[in-house]
Amino acid sequence: MIEFSNYDILRNLMFATQWTILLSLAAFIGGTTVALTLTAMRLTRNPAMQRIVRVYVELFQGTPLLMQMFLCFFGLSMLGYEISAWGAAILSLTLFTSAFLVEIWRGCIDTLPKGQWEASRCLGLSFLQTLRHIILPQAIRVATAPTVGFSVQVIKGTALASVIGFVELTKVGTMLNNATFEPFKIFTLVALIYFMLCYPLSLYSKHLEKKFNVSR
Amino acid sequence: MSLVNLHQVHKYYGDNHVLKGIDLDIKAGEVVSIIGKSGSGKSTLLRCINGLEQYQEGGITVDGKEVTTEDIQVRRLALSVGMIFQNFNLFPHMTVGENVMLAPTIVLKKSKAEAETTARAMLEKVGLADKFDSFPEKLSGGQQQRVAIARALAMSPKVLLCDEITSALDPELVGEVLKVLEQLAKEGITLVLVTHEMNFARDVGSRVVFMHQGKVWEQGDSKTLLSNPQTDELKQFIGAVL
Amino acid sequence: MLYFSDLLQYSDVFLSGLKTTVELTVLTTILGVVLGTVCATVRQYGNRASQRVVSVYVELIRNTPFIVQLFFIFFGLPAIGMMLSPWEASMIALTINLGAYSTEIIRAGLASISKGQIEAAKVLGLNFRQTLTRVIFVPAFEKIYPALTSQCIIVMLGSAVISQISVQDLTYAANLVQSRNFRAFESYFVTALLYLGLSILLRFAFNALGKRLFAYRASN
């Protein structure tokens, strides 16, 4: 058995943290992109489009992220699409993230008074012009705080990628645990690292929310 | 014998000296109207009498017992002092009847049947017997305030404090609430009201206390004082509100 | 090709997994909301020190992944002498997790109750406990009921992770079945649908319960 010094443990965890951060970023960027597309579909006011978005949200909010990951990883390869753990993790986290973001943003857009749309119509602005100049600038201001807040959920969600074998922080934690038999120490450290990643984002989200409420 | 007695009461909010040595003596059966500009300390004075606000110097007694903000003391006080608020503060999740029965059952430990009899009698008194099973949000502001009065009366208080109880009402609803108060005054209930209703203060009240800059500036029999104010400040105030 | 019919012979496995998931969900929903209510009350009305303790608990849980919390409780605590079965560890982890989120949610509800309501109770002679239970809780919970029940459903879905410490829940059943018949897609797909059904069912149940709890809104 190899002896692990505290330094070795920390070094390994730090190395793994890079993958957690990378996976979080990829999922967040992917999720935002898909959520933007879905939001656009919703705003078209086309009933079919809106129904698609509703079903999408229902599906990915109503099932466990872990199950989505299993389906992406084991399921897709069963169907003949070979996918790496990394690919399956990004894909499922993107689906998960976008389903929540599109709902969060819907709430933000809905808080804008209906009069804004009507007033723009009266001024002769087209749908896209209204969106671009009137709705989006306001919606982005409202949406920033909850979006930053949700990024914490994304980071925590990446921990599930360990289950399908992707080597990130939680996976390295369990591996180190198996090698050192010091679960208390290892999982405390793992938890602390997640906390250091997430807590600043939580604080920033709260700060943004306060700032926004004051300026209103 | 004095029912409510204030002796040299001082109250500060931080550096702000709100009450500057209030002396006031209220006897059983009196109807005392406290008038004055906003910021003169009249609401604060009322809230000191039932222990909702702490005062820093002096002493207040109600029915011979000292008033403090200590929780247990406030609750004992609740047995002799009733209070009605500007914003009614009915409990939205209880029916009118449940609102009135709440304190008698859980504070006075009355039986449900006994509390219900009292509650119905009190609601009858304020003219809302038929609303026993309604929820507050279904009532008009005037009706809600009358329920609040019934709720306070159900505890058979020795004195009823009214904090601008008609100020949040639409003008056409003020009358029905004042009529109830007038009825109570006739029955001999001791009332202390912070109010802007000068006509009510003159016609129903027995005494008017004019507060200015945290002091009792002038007081006396309501009809005499309001028709013949002594100080410039009261003259000005009466001129402004009438 | 997909062969869903192959799963039929395993319906017992799925059902027993479903039962475990439902049992744990019901139990931890109740315990978690009770814990959250106590913590929220302390957070809103307690003294400075106890408020601080609750804040630390809430922030620690909300900013770490559930799976790490679960591993810490199941693997970490025995190392310092607290032996727990997988089922016990899961129950504790889920309760603590929901407790932290519901603390934040319920506190927002408590904060929404106007000072006037509390003063009205005070001048009627109600003590603090009576004011809380009779005057504050019902309107406060009504305010945050949708947020609270959504969180309960999120925690139910998150419970899929407890299969990783071999609690025989619905996800465990899915893993077991796919390891036997190698029909991973079918097995996980059906399980995902079962979870979806469960979350829809829970939402219905919560709505029905809400209608009963807050009946005063709809009546006369």
Q: Would you write up a description of this structure?
A:
The complex is a heterotrimer of chains A (216), B (242) and C (220). With 216 residues, chain A is mainly α. Helix content of chain A is 83%, strand content 0%. Chain A has helices spanning 6-43, 47-61, 65-78, 85-111, 114-122, 127-157, 169-180, 183-215. In chain A, helix 1 (6-43) packs parallel to helix 8 (183-215) and helix 6 (127-157) packs antiparallel against helix 8 (183-215). The radius of gyration of chain A is 21 Å and the shape is flat. The termini of chain A are far apart. Chain B has 242 residues and is an alpha/beta fold. In chain B, 38% of the residues lie in helices and 26% in strands. Chain B has helices spanning 42-49, 71-78, 96-106, 112-125, 141-153, 171-186, 198-203, 222-227, 232-241, and strands at 2-13, 16-27, 31-35, 57-62, 65-66, 81-84, 159-163, 190-194, 207-212, 215-221. In chain B, the strands form two sheets. Chain B has a six-stranded mixed beta sheet, sandwiched between helices. Chain B has a four-stranded antiparallel beta sheet with strand order 2-1-4-5, with helices on one face. In chain B, helix 3 (96-106) runs parallel beside helix 5 and helix 4 (112-125) crosses helix 5 (141-153). The longest helix of chain B is centred in the last third of the chain and has 16 residues, at 171-186. Chain B is globular, with a radius of gyration of 18 Å. The two termini of chain B are 34 Å apart. Chain C is mainly α. Chain C has one domain (4-215): MetI-like fold. Chain C is built from eight helices and no strands. In chain C, helix 4 packs across helix 6 (128-158) and helix 5 packs across helix 6 (128-158). Chain C has helices at residues 11-45, 48-62, 66-79, 86-111, 115-123, 128-158, 170-181, 184-213. Helices cover 78% and strands 0% of the residues of chain C. Chains in contact: A-C, B-C. At the A-C interface, helix 2, helix 3, helix 6, helix 7 and helix 8 of A face helix 2, helix 3, helix 6, helix 7 and helix 8 of C.
